[in-house]
Amino acid sequence: MSCKAALLAIAVSMLCVNTAQAERRLFIIANDAGGYGVDRCLANGAACGAAAAAAYCRSREFKSAVSFRKVDREEITGAVPTASSTNCRGDACGTFVAIECNR
After folding, report:
1. Of 55, 66, 59, 72, nearest to 26 (Cα)?
2. Highest mean pLDDT out of 1-10, 15-24, 78-87
3. How far apart are CA 82 and CA 96, in angstroms?
4. How far apart are CA 61 and CA 77, in angstroms?
């Protein structure tokens, strides 16, 4: 009977390890790349945004980018900068991108 309990404990611990390794996090960032065009790639979900999304995830100590897309203000909960913010310039005001990262 103790062998079955030990095997069950090992199986449960392995499931916990796999769950921890599959951690995902969604980052909401301002969609402004200073005129380099990366912002359009990220917001449109185009292939050219994949490298920027992957680099962003790696800079946050994640393994890879799972997805990236433009998000509307209505989708964001919490504090969102207003259009009167000093960081807001031109057509990029109020535009945000969601990047989902995986560990």
Report:
1. 66
2. 15-24
3. 12
4. 24
Say yes or no to pLDDT of 66 above 80.
yes
pLDDT at residue number 14: 62
Those residues with Cβ within 8 angstroms of residue 87's Cβ, 6 or more apart along the chain or in another chain: 30, 32, 81
Q: Give the residue ranges of DSSP H helices in the chain.
A: 2-21, 38-44, 50-59
By DSSP bridging, strand 96-102 and strand 24-30 are: antiparallel
State the Cα–Cα distance between residues 81 and 63, nearest whole angstrom: 29
Can you give the length of the chain in residues?
A: 103
Q: 5 or 23: whose pLDDT is higher? A: 23
Contact 49, 68 (CB under 8 A): yes
pLDDT of residue 34 exceeding 90, the answer is: no
How many percent of the chain have pLDDT more than 90?
21
Contact call for residues 29 and 97 (beta carbons, < 8 A): yes
Q: What are the structure tokens assigned to 18, written together? A: 């796999």
